[in-house]
């Protein structure tokens, strides 16, 4: 059981540590990051209950549209809501890169507890693939979410803020939906998912670099 718990939490902690340590300008309080991670974990049960109701009470079973709504829309929307109300409005969210830190923390909290449940049900033999695909994909969807939340928070007009807020929820849902569609619609999915994940990492790291540059400009413009 200890090995299973370790295998479930290690990928999330490792990926979160990477994105947290990239915040070299003005790192967030570790207590805030842990809090966001815990909030993400707390989302798992209500989301699972809602998905169960959608599948069994509302009879939304099977099909690409049902899967997209139950997984991509529900999960990314609730993660976005938690980030918006617990981090976006917080005083510690004081530079653009912070959006990525908090979004990744919430998403990996969710992915880590979800991963533990999957390993308990299916065993340790799937731990490597769970770390490589679902856990890391949750983090990468969160990079896009956090990047645009950071742009929204420090935009210079209400119109730009609304646009970036819209992008911060729409793009992660779209990426998550595409990720799910690959598994549902492509017979030899491994041929497609590998380049898709590589593209996600490449674009995600570019977003990290851009957010870091925006943060550097933001901090340098502060009164001394």
From TrEMBL:
Where does the sequence pass through the membrane? 6-21, 33-53, 100-121, 127-150, 162-182, 188-205
Which EC class does it fall in? hydrolase
What Pfam family is a match for this entry?
Answer: PrsW-protease
What keywords are annotated for this sequence in UniProt?
Answer: Cell membrane, Hydrolase, Membrane, Protease, Transmembrane, Transmembrane helix
Q: What GO biological process terms does the UniProt entry carry, in alphabetical order?
A: proteolysis
Name one molecular function that GO assigns to this entry.
peptidase activity
Primary location group: membrane
Q: What is its EC number?
A: 3.4.-.-
| Membrane topology, from the record | Multi-pass membrane protein
Cellular localization per UniProt = Cell membrane
Query: What InterPro entries has UniProt attached to this entry?
Result: Peptidase_PrsW_arch/bac, PrsW
Its function? Involved in the degradation of specific anti-sigma factors.
Which family is this sequence assigned to?
Belongs to the protease PrsW family.
For this entry, the protein name equals Protease PrsW
Tell me what organism the protein belongs to.
Brevibacillus reuszeri
The organism that produces this protein has a lineage beginning with: Bacteria, Bacillati, Bacillota, Bacilli, Bacillales
* Designated gene of the protein: prsW
């Amino acid at each position: 059981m200890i090995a299973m718990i370790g295998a479930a939490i290690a990928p999330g902690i490792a990926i979160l540590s990477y994105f947290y340590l990239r915040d070299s300008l003005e790192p967030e309080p570790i207590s805030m990051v842990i809090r966001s991670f815990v909030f993400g974990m707390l989302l798992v049960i209500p989301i699972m209950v809602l998905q169960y109701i959608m599948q069994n009470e509302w009879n939304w079973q099977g099909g690409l549209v049902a899967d997209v709504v139950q997984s991509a829309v529900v999960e990314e929307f609730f993660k976005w809501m938690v980030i918006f109300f617990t981090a976006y409005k917080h005083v510690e969210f004081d530079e653009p890169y912070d959006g990525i830190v908090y979004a990744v923390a919430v998403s990996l909290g969710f992915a880590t507890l979800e991963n533990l449940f999957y390993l308990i049900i299916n065993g340790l033999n799937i731990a490597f693939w769970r770390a490589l695909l679902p856990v890391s994909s949750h983090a990468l969807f969160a990079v896009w979410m956090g990047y645009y939340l950071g742009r929204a928070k420090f935009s210079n007009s209400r119109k730009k803020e609304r646009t970036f807020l819209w992008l911060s929820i729409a793009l992660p849902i779209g990426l998550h939906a595409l990720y799910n569609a690959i598994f549902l619609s492509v017979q030899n999915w491994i041929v497609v998912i590998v380049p898709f994940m590589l593209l996600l990492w490449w674009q995600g790291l570019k977003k990290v670099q851009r957010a870091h540059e925006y943060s550097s400009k933001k901090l340098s413009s502060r009164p001394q």
